[in-house]
Amino acid sequence: MSYSEKLLEHYENPRNVGALDKSDRNVGTGLVGAPACGDVMKLQIKVGKDGIIEDAKFKTFGCGSAIASSSLATEWIKGKSVDEAETIRNTDIAQHLSLPPVKIHCSVLAEDAIKAAIKDYREKNSVAAAPEAATAK
Amino acid sequence: MSLELKTNIPEMNGQGGSARGTNAPKLPIYLDYQATTPCDPRVVEAMLPYFTEKFGNPHSRNHPYGWEAEEAVEKARRQVASIIGADEREVIFTSGATESNNLAIKGVMRFHKDQRNHMITTVTEHKCVLDSARHMEMEGVEVTYLPVQQNGLVDLEKLKAAITPKTALVSIMAVNNEIGVIQPLAEIGKICRERHVYFHTDAAQAVGKIPLDVNAMNIDLMSISGHKIYGPKGVGALYVRRKPRVRLEALIHGGGQERGLRSGTLPTPLCVGLGEACAIAQREMGAEAERLRFLRNRLLDGITKALPEVYVNGDLEQRIPGNLNLSFAYVEGEGLMMGIKNLSVSSGSACTSASLEPSYVLRALGVEEELAHTSIRFGLGRFTTEQEVDYAVEQVVGAVKRLRELSPLWEMAQEGIDIKSIEWSGH
User: Fold this and answer.
1) A36–B425 CB contact, under 8 Å
2) For residue A11, is it within any domain?
3) Residue B382: phi, psi to the nearest 5?
4) Which of A42, B97, B301, B307 has its C-alpha lying 20 to 30 A from B159's C-alpha?
5) Quick one: how far is CA B423 from the chain centroid?
6) What phi and psi values does residue B225 have, to the nearest 5 degrees?
7) At what angle do helices A5-12 and A64-77 cross, to 10 degrees?
8) How near does any CA of chain B get to the CA of A34, in Å?
């Protein structure tokens, strides 16, 4: 299988690898996928007072496409408002990285990770929040 | 190709690398010898005349062109027979081990199924055995798929218990293609002979790697591959015992060549190549196994000294020396392969398939799915050098360390979180 240069570049030099403090109220954490399926993504956002994502970090267990998809996702959401970040679609990621058809699920997982992180952030910041399964505790 | 390989010959039995006069090995490094092997230059040399000046049809009885081709094919047949302790009349040339396995399983079962319609195989067989067995199920044959133990070996008691008066055939591979484990062939053969059941073994990964003797091991049918033993692709053989005679139906009909079991003009150069490959392997097996065991242990030690949580899949003792199958916990196999792109290895992970299922062989050993996704098969062979192994260790250790820093599972493990306690969403 041949991969695009953009994908390989993200794999070789992934952006925003790391972790943010999960207990911080301004940090939303999304953990999606499953080890048994061969893909797990953890994506975190830190939201400023103005509702802008000021920092994003990720860690991914998966193939090169999964690593590149999550790296790209963090790059794209930084500096965006939470609402804007939510509009990122897996097809945008797949297209940007020229993912082969068998790797489209990696971009789906990245979109899910963004959404899960946003959901966690919103739940933390609303009174009626209840913790959801498959988000890091 | 042959010229390039010739430059490698001095390294074959040496300490490796020095012949090139440089410290950098030629990249990418081939470490996938269970997938296929390069033709040994000596094999190519033996084959060449049979493409051009000695091109006769080995079945032509009326002129010297036919005779010299026939002579070459019969010499090759003796060479193949010799490495497995068989009589040359018991060797049938085929297009490869896939055809041999098809012929053995379908041929024996179709011949016998009216009286005995049961066969036994194992869940870790090569796909061509499993698929042939499945195909026979559609023709009314009952198939028992034996499980294997955690080390990859069959449980002989389970085999004994599975044999019934209706059993015609037991088909158990000699050496597994993914994990390299060697099944207890002599014990299986003894059980089969006592119970009057044919014993077929797919020996594609075993011939030339371990000593085999069809009589001592009571093997009735054996599949052999050319390209796994430094011979050409497109040729293989099936050993079919004459005494007591194994009866089977042909798959390919025509001129009645190969005792009527495999019609079609024999490809003289390919037969010669397979024969020469067997002859070389038979001569050099002992020394080569010793050298490969040293290299394999060097690879394993180098990796496990530098990295925690690396697991060997399959029995390490009952294994061909050129195979190492490792799971690198918390690092997905395909992601790892991209990180060691200068090493041509195989991944037990199959993230590319729609099903996302990891290797069925590893799953059969009871390797958990998350660990099966982290496995890499290293195949060492005749042209692997010590310098290449050292380079491989360095590359693997570096990539695993980097990818573990990137892995949320590794992070959790470091924090003492049990990954199994998490309710994963899947996808």
Assistant:
1) no
2) yes
3) -55, -35
4) B97
5) 39
6) -115, 145
7) 80
8) 5
B138 CA: distance to closest CA in chain A (Å): 31
pLDDT per residue as tens digits for the range B307-342: 999 999 999 999 999 999 999 999 999 899 999 999
Contact B353, B366 (CB under 8 A): no
CATH number of B2-39+285-417: 3.90.1150.10
| Residue A1 confidence (pLDDT) | 63
Q: Give the model's pLDDT for residue B370.
A: 86
Q: What's the average model confidence in pLDDT over B130-146?
A: 98
Task: Tell me how far apart the alpha carbons of residues B52 and B67 are, in angstroms, rounded to a whole number.
Answer: 15
Give the domain range for residue A103: 5-124
DSSP 3-state of A35: helix
Task: Write down the pTM of the prediction.
Answer: 0.90
Asked if residue B379 lies in contact with residue B33, where contact means CB atoms within 8 angstroms, the answer is yes
Size of interface A-B (CB pairs under 8 A): 106
Note whether residue A136 is domain-resident: no
In chain B, where are the structural domains located? 2-39+285-417, 43-280
What is the domain-level CATH number for residue A26?
Answer: 3.90.1010.10
For residues B66-70, average pLDDT: 97
Average pLDDT over residues B286-292: 98
Residues 14-33 of A with CB under 8 A from B: 14, 17, 19, 31-33
Strand A27-34 versus strand A39-47 pairing type: antiparallel
Contact of A101 with chain B, judged by CB distance below 8 Å, is answered with no
Are the folds of B2-39+285-417 and B43-280 the same? no
d(CA B239, CA B235): 14
The answer to whether A78 contacts chain B (CB < 8 Å) is: no
In which residue are the tokens 């591979």 written?
Answer: B173
CATH code, residues B43-280: 3.40.640.10
Residue pair B124/B364 in contact (Cβ under 8 Å)? The answer is: yes
Percent of chain B with pLDDT over 90: 87
A130 assigned to some structural domain: no
Q: Is residue A106 domain-resident?
A: yes
Within 10 Å of residue B165's Cβ, how many Cβ atoms? 10
